[in-house]
Design a protein that fits this description.
By secondary structure, this protein is α+β, with helices and mostly antiparallel strands. The chain has one domain: Cytochrome p450 (Orthogonal Bundle), CATH 1.10.630. The chain has 16 helices and 12 strands. Helix 9 packs antiparallel against helix 10 and helix 13 runs antiparallel to helix 14. It starts with 16 loop residues before the first strand and ends with a strand.
Length: 414
Amino acid sequence: MSIHPGSERPAPLGLRRDGLDPDPEVTALRERGGTCPVTTLAGHRAELVAGFHDARAVHGDPVFGFEAVPPPPGIAAEVADGELRRRRSGMLLMLDPPDHTRLRRMLTGRFTVRAMRALEPRVAAIVDEALTAMAAGGPPADLVADFALPVPSLVICELLGVPYTDRDGFQERAALTLRSDLAPAERAAVIHASREYMATLVARARRDPGDDLIGMLVREHGDRPAAEGGIDDDELAGLANLLLVAGHETTSNVIALGTLALLRDPAQMALLRAAVEDPGPEPLHRAVEEMLRVVSPVSAGFPRVATRDAVVGTHPIPAGTLVTASLCAANRDPALSEGDLDALDLAREPLPHVAFGYGIHHCLGAPLARIELRIAFTALLRRFPGLTLAVDPDELEYRHDSLIHGVEALPVAW
C-alpha cells in the first residue's frame, strides 16, 4: 500500500502512471493478483484491482453499483443527499438501472457504428482544417493544443450543439474535475459551474430545439417527466456535460500519447504508415485497437460499491466495499495473450481490452472515438511525413494522478 508521507490516507495509486505505462506498483499488484487500498478521484477509500478478468468482473457484475456510493468525503452531511442527487442526475457513470437504462436507450440510436460513419466527412474536414492551421503556424507546434485537443472538441461540440467559442471555459473545468488534488469544496464549485453552463444550453434548446443531440433529446423525450420515461432539465444538463467531457478528453489524449509512442518507436511508426496506405481497413483497425489498449487514457474506472458480499477473482469483497479497477494495467495483463503486452505492436491481432470500460457502462462514444482516431492518424502522417519530436522525451510533462492520462504539451516539428 502506498501512503503519502505524514498521512493515513492511501495514495491515489489507481490514477498514477509512469510515462506511457501503468505505475510499477499497480503492475506489481496485478502480477501478484492482489488488492490494494487507494484513494479515488473524489477522495473515497476503495480497493484497487488490476487484473483484466478482475476489471471486467467489477465493471460487468451488477452486484457492483454506483448509486450506493456514499458522498465524497468533505461534503457537509446536511447538503449531501440533495447535492449528490443533483450531481448524479443524468450522469450515466453514476447511475444504475433503471435510470441508466432509460437514459442510455435515448442515445443508443445516435451512437451506432452506422450513425457515426455518417459523420466521417465532417470529421475529416475538421481534421484537415486543424492540420492546415498547424502547418501555417510553422514548426515547432504543440500537437496537443493545435491538433489533438481541438479536433475531438469541435466534433463533440457540433454533435451536442455546444458553442465551440466556449471551449476555453469547458476545457478548463473538465481538466480541473479530473485532478485528484482538488479540495472537495473546489471540486463541488467546478461541477456546479459545469452544470450551470450546460443548463443555459438546455434552456436554449427548450426554447428552440435544434438538430443537435440536446435538441433531439428535448424534442423526443423532454415533454414528459423521468417517471414516465422522459428526461428532465437536470438530467439533460448532466448527460450533455458527461458527453462533452468524455467526448473530447479521452480521444484527444489517445491522439497525443499515441503519436508520442510512435515518434519514440520508428518501427511502429513504419507499421502505422503502411496501415494508413493499405487499401483494406484491417491494418488500420488493428493499429487503432492496439493503440487504445496500450495508451488506455482512462487510468481507472469510477469506483463502484458492492451491494452485497461478492467475490472478484479470489478476493472476497464484503458488502459496502468500494472497488475500482486499473484499466491501464488490466489492458497489459499477460493473461490476455503471449508476448510482451507492455510493448506497442501495431501488427498484433486485436486483443480484448477495457479502454472503453465494460458491461452496461461501456463507452457510448466508442464508435465515434475509433472513427476520429483512424481519420486523425491517417491525415497527420500524410500531411507531415517528416513528423518528429521537437524536444527530448524526458522533458515532457505528464498529467499527475488524473483520471484521464495525458501529456501537457507535445512539441513537434516536420
